[in-house]
Amino acid sequence: FRHIAVNFTEVTAKTEAEWDAVTEDIRRILAENGLQCIQSHPYYYDLMRSSELVEEEHEFSIKQAIIASGKLGAKWCVLHPRTSLTTGRYVSASFADNRKVFSEYLELACKHGTGIAAENLPVFGIKPAIPFYSSSYEDLCNLTDSFCDPNMAICWDTGHANLMSFDQAEAIRFLGSRIQCTHIHNNFKQMDNHLPPDQGNLPWDKVMQAFSDIGYRGPLTLETHCCYAEPGLLASFAKHNFACLEYLERLM
Fold first, then answer.
1. What is the pLDDT of residues 73-112, one digit of tens each?
2. Which of 30, 79, 200, 248 has the most CB atoms at less than 10 Å from its CB?
3. CA dihedral 57, 62, 12, 112 (to 10 degrees)
4. Going by C-beta distance under 8 Å and a sequence separation of 6 or more, which residues neighbour residue 71?
5. Judging by beta carbons within 10 Å of its beta carbon (0-12, 13-18, 19+), is residue 177 exposed, middle or buried?
6. What is the CA radius of gyration of the chain?
7. DSSP string spanning 195-208?
8. What angle do CA 38, 55, 88 make, to 5 degrees?
9. pTM passes above 0.90
């Protein structure tokens, strides 16, 4: 690998000075290993936290991660849209809440040379199932289009989409050039396992054909979870995932 996505979700820095130190440390590690940061994942709220509830500490972490992403050269900061759980007006209230905070994120991102990509999420893992706001790709499209800004885009998560009932290839074609980055992983349509691409029942031939049809030229960014700590097994896992991405590129 020569490119990497930086995950800021577990950074515990509490001040701007601490964030500056974290950013410089990441920059050093990337330089030492010949890696280029192409996208990031800032902090996100608990997905069961209703969208009208905004917390200063969380907002600080999100905004500092956006600034850090710009300093590291990331083209996109991937953020989770949030869902209104308490109003009973899931779509309209969720849109309004997200429109408000994403406006602030986008303004900050543009100032620091990066962009914002809203990610599609799956349904709640409860019964009866209630969808997250961005589990509907039409709603995600509406949120993105409301900004009319090339620095506002969509990160398409293949594993999350596989958990939904819609045709993923159809959704990709519908969203088209709005998709500027990805999270690539797989599952068996039961849990959000974040498995390597070859483990699961995602129809990669149809999905990659859809990416090809929309002229997608962005990164295929792995978001697979690894449980190996032993260096040899970890290296083997990385090589296997790399081979899976090569296979997906051939399908395009």
1. 999 999 999 999 887 777 999 999 999 999 999 999 999 9
2. 79
3. -130
4. 23, 27, 112
5. exposed
6. 18
7. B-TTSS---HHHHH
8. 100
9. yes
> Around Cβ 201, how many Cβ atoms within 10 Å?
11
Other Cβ atoms within 10 Å of 156 Cβ, number = 28
Report percent pLDDT > 90 for the chain: 92
Q: Give the tokens for residue 77.
A: 């900061």
Tokens representing residue 103 in the block: 């406006």
Give 123's contacts (C-beta < 8 A, 6+ positions apart). 129, 130, 131, 132, 135, 163, 164
Span 187-240, pLDDT tens digits: 999 999 999 999 999 999 999 999 999 999 999 999 999 989 999 999 999 999
Token duo for residue 244:
């899976």
Two tokens at 238?
């990385």
In whole angstroms, give the CA distance from residue 188 to residue 167.
15
Tell me the pLDDT tens digit for each residue of 120-173. 999 876 556 677 899 999 999 999 999 999 999 999 999 999 999 999 999 999
61 burial (CB, 10 Å; 0-12 / 13-18 / 19+) is buried
- In this structure, which amino acid lies at residue 124? F
43 neighbors 8 (Cβ within 8 angstroms): yes
